[in-house]
């Protein structure tokens, strides 16, 4: 019975390493896309909560992101997304309008405001 030789083992390790290096960038891109999707959904939930708050009180919550979850949940029907609890969310409001930025790891951010209907990605240079 023949065992593996050192050259068999080296060839197997080299082929495995090449496959790993080939698959790793694709995996990173897919995980980044999935993470952005989760943050996009959470930001959309916050936008809906802001609109419910506005409909109920006639203004947007105070300009302080530390109290944003409790202010939005004061309406009773809204539950602040757990993904965003403790995450550095930038919320700017004057009561009549708002802007929200969620920083992403790669020097970009998800952005939403009261004047646009969608969520878009902006670069770090566009952040306040």
Q: What do these coordinates show?
A:
There is one protein chain. A hairpin with a 6-residue loop joins strand 3 and strand 4. This protein is an alpha+beta fold and 128 residues long. The chain has one domain. The chain is elongated and about 80 Å long. Strands 1-2-3-4 form a 4-stranded antiparallel β-sheet, covered by helices on one side. The longest helix has 52 residues, at 6-57. The chain is 45% helix and 16% strand. It starts with 5 loop residues before the first helix and ends in a 5-residue tail after the last strand. It has 2 helices and 4 strands.
- Backbone structural class: alpha+beta
Sheet with most strands: strand arrangement: 1-2-3-4
For the termini, the CA-CA separation is 70 Å
For the sheet with most strands, the description reads:
4 strands, antiparallel
- List the helices and strands in order: HHEEEE
Evaluate the radius of gyration: 23 Å
Number of strands: 4
- Put simply, the count of helices is 2
Percentage of residues in DSSP E strands: 15-25%
Low-confidence stretches: none
Overall geometry comes to: elongated
Whole-number mean pLDDT: 85
Level of helix content?
40-55%
Domain tally: 1
